[in-house]
Amino acid sequence: MTVERDVMEYDVLVVGGGPAGLSAAIRLKQKAAEEGKEINVCLVEKGSEIGAHILSGAVFEPRALNELIPDWKAQGAPLNTPVKGDDVYFYLSPEKAFKMPGLFVPKPMHNEGNYIISLGNLCRWLGQQAEALGVEIYPGFAAQHPIIEDGVVKGVTIGDMGINHKGEHKSDYAPGMELRAKYTLFGEGCRGHLGKQLNALYQLDKDADPQHYAIGIKEIWTIDPAKHQAGLVVHGAGWPLNLLGTDSLGGSFLYHLENNTVVVGLIVDLSYSNPYLSPFDEFQRFKHHPVMKQYLEGGTRVGYGARAICKGGFNSLPKMVFPGGALIGCDLGTMNFAKIKGSHTAMKSGMLAADAAAEAIFSGSEGGDELTGYVSKFKASWLYEELYQSRNFGVFLHKFGSLIGGAINWVEQNIFGGKFPFTAHDLKFDHKSLKLAKDSQKIEYTKPDGKISFDKLSSVFLSSTNHEEDQPVHLQLKDASIPLAQNLPMYDEPAQRYCPAGVYEIIGEGEAKKFQINAQNCVHCKTCDIKDPAQNINWVAPEGGGGPNYANM
Amino acid sequence: MKVLVSVKRVVDYNVRIQIKPDGSGVVTDGVKHSMNPFDEIAMEEAVRLKEKGKVTEIIAVTLGGAKGEETLRTALAFGADRAIHVKEEGEIQPLTAARALAAIFKKEGAQILFTGKQAIDDDANQTAQMTAALLDLPQATFASKVELDGTKAQVTREIDAGLETLEVDLPAVISADLRLNEPRYLKLPDIMKAKKKTIEAVSFADLGVEAAASLKTIKTTPPPTRSKGVMVKTVDELVSALKAKGLV
Ligand SMILES: Cc1cc2nc3c(=O)[nH]c(=O)nc-3n(C[C@H](O)[C@H](O)[C@H](O)COP(=O)(O)OP(=O)(O)OC[C@H]3O[C@@H](n4cnc5c(N)ncnc54)[C@H](O)[C@@H]3O)c2cc1C
Ligand code: SF4
């Protein structure tokens, strides 16, 4: 059955309104204005508004923003809290911690000149700047498929609206439009679902190391003004994750923003091997550590969310371009994991792709070719240098653990300036790292106390997540039997624990046992798509506008 | 027949409302806003009546700051023919809104003012009624069904005891309740077209309207949190627990 779709044509189409996509769109319009020419730019965003699906720390390095909008301060960019202090802790036990003397904090972890921000709010502001420059922004519309004709990416098809859970058209069915463009820039962030299709189609990652991931879980708290120190950054590694071993790694953050707000989060490496590990519960118990509790006690939790992070860095970068388009930001994998910063690098990659697309269009290109200018600009940029210097960090941690790996990294960053004469590689995929349940130790998590720690459902409630109820499940199983027939006996179905929103449940007993997918709760973190050991879960975009409605994330 | 639809930009219904720590109001910065859901229903009704050929022109009106433009674009994507933005920053009380709507209603010579029954931010449920009073027109509030017949409208209203059907002479003010209709999905091509339409901006001064200051917000507090339930095993236990609390 073919569907009649409305079609719109643009010069450049941007998929995703994160820092990468918005910077690309702004840069295209700036280039056009400089040349006195016109470039039509359209940007689609699956969230109900720009910023609704953005989740980050975030300590923000303004380097790319300084280049994109030098007078950002005068234009009212929401960078309100300069970093004033940098604490780094090694958590040794539920009670003990060792504070690293400033001298030993590796250079990439220094934050002078940086700001603590809500990346969601920065994106809202960038969205306003882009609209003022004439970018057409359509939030609430998710790109569902790339349009590929004769091996060339011609644009994207927007998801249909008004289909019921059985796949039938409802009375208000509206087929998604085709948006076509000379060049399409994919900026969907970590584990973009179109990026994933393009990767497979063009074998973009065939010469790269496997991409590595982590899940970041974050909460926003309002705390007692007496305990609040605007500008303080607290990073750490160790308990409840591993400090000395090479498994179950990760790090934590706690940032003091303006208005007595702090954000607190735990980043858990998805290379963990114990199928009983629950990143959500690790985070909940972590908040009870005295270093965290001293700030949170007596405060109120006001926001919750989670999002995957691409941390493979330089060694995992796939080919960036294909006929008719390019990957930008975390869809490409530009996060600098040594700094846990990916916003400035995402912005820069978007700007470089935009420069290349604008030049191609000005020189008369009708599109459809590979944006090789983007690749050469990337290689000549500070972004390339930055990622190159940090290329060994994640590998050191995976191979040597947080403490020793961190120490080697300190030597590399501070003595060799990131220029060790060798590159370390980590070739194991994250979904292949789980041990069998029978060979793993169960983890007993204590019940949340409702003051510092909470359960999943009351947490998801704070993400203001909403999906139209009667629609096809957007978490597709390639083989519906795998969860019960394979994942359950082998790994005690880890989806029950790695999903931070309680989407996956095993209910009933014996014959009546059922794998249930509560798709309405999904916060679009993409962890299931990454960690399912059978790679059986395929995340696709739900009806546009669905998902979390994050505020100040 | 010309109809006016008033649309308000409010904090989206999915958002968990937060009170500002100083109790001066709710947090609106960095929070998703959208068209008041009851206004969407009012908008949808106007569009359906136009599709049936009963209405010839739909004018959407919003009051408020610059961001109200988004709400008017939504109204245009629904199918409004024109949009008027009463552009005023700061708080706008129901009486002020009613004065402005009445002024536009008169100026446009409209036959019906459609509003939502209330806005989900302050739940004041006053604007429709006050506008009707200022214009000295009949009002049919909480509509769950509207039928137009020449110079009259038959409106079914949801009331505590069930349904009530009124007949009002036009012009009149009608406010929409939840069950009046189910608003459509906005289609991307319609949103694209709506972006290109012009929006007329006016001020209170242009309309000859004075801002009212009849209400003062003293304090905003969150509702009390529900305390944990207790499980009782027997009826006797329940009764004695209730007695202990002095409830029976
Ligand atoms: C817990 C956590 C802490 C972090 N801390 C920091 C930090 O302190 N400093 C820092 O610099 N970085 C930090 N990062 C990393 C940073 O947030 C990311 O690198 C950055 O957001 C990447 O930007 P992006 O534009 O590539 O993607 P994203 O920010 O992920 O944005 C992608 C956008 O595209 C939209 N989208 C996706 N798919 C589609 C589709 N098919 N159709 C339409 N729209 C789509 C999404 O809804 C989203 O709005 C952190 C990340 C996490 C998770
Ligand atoms: S279902 Fe998948 S993408 Fe959605 S919240 Fe759970 S793990 Fe994340």
Automatic annotation (TrEMBL), chain A:
Reaction it catalyzes: a ubiquinone + reduced [electron-transfer flavoprotein] = a ubiquinol + oxidized [electron-transfer flavoprotein] + H(+)
Ranges of residues in domain ETF-QO/FixX C-terminal: 450-550
Textual note on the cofactor: Binds 1 [4Fe-4S] cluster.
InterPro entries attached to this UniProt entry: ETF-QO, ETF-QO/FixC_UQ-bd, ETF-QO/FixX_C, FAD/NAD-bd_sf
Pfam family of the protein (one): Fer4_ETF_QO
Domain ETF-QO/FixC ubiquinone-binding, first and last residues per copy: 213-309
Molecular function terms from GO: 4 iron, 4 sulfur cluster binding; electron-transferring-flavoprotein dehydrogenase activity; metal ion binding
Swiss-Prot/TrEMBL keywords: 4Fe-4S, Electron transport, FAD, Flavoprotein, Iron, Iron-sulfur, Metal-binding, Oxidoreductase, Transport, Ubiquinone
Free-text function comment from the UniProt entry: Accepts electrons from ETF and reduces ubiquinone.
PANTHER family referenced in this protein's UniProt entry, alphabetically: ELECTRON TRANSFER FLAVOPROTEIN-UBIQUINONE OXIDOREDUCTASE (PTHR10617), ELECTRON TRANSFER FLAVOPROTEIN-UBIQUINONE OXIDOREDUCTASE, MITOCHONDRIAL (PTHR10617:SF107)
Record-given protein name: Electron transfer flavoprotein-ubiquinone oxidoreductase
Source species: Stenotrophobium rhamnosiphilum
UniProtKB/TrEMBL annotation, chain B:
Cofactor(s) the record lists: AMP
Alphabetical keyword list: Electron transport, Transport
Record InterPro entries: ETF_a/b_N, ETF_b, ETF_beta_N, Rossmann-like_a/b/a_fold
Domain Electron transfer flavoprotein alpha/beta-subunit N-terminal positions: 23-211
UniProt record, GO biological process: carboxylic acid catabolic process
Gene3D superfamilies on file: HUPs
UniProt cross-references to SMART domains, sorted A to Z: ETF
Pfam family name, one: ETF
Single GO MF annotation: electron transfer activity
Family: Belongs to the ETF beta-subunit/FixA family.
Quaternary organization: Heterodimer of an alpha and a beta subunit.
Stated role: The electron transfer flavoprotein serves as a specific electron acceptor for other dehydrogenases. It transfers the electrons to the main respiratory chain via ETF-ubiquinone oxidoreductase (ETF dehydrogenase).
Protein name: Electron transfer flavoprotein subunit beta
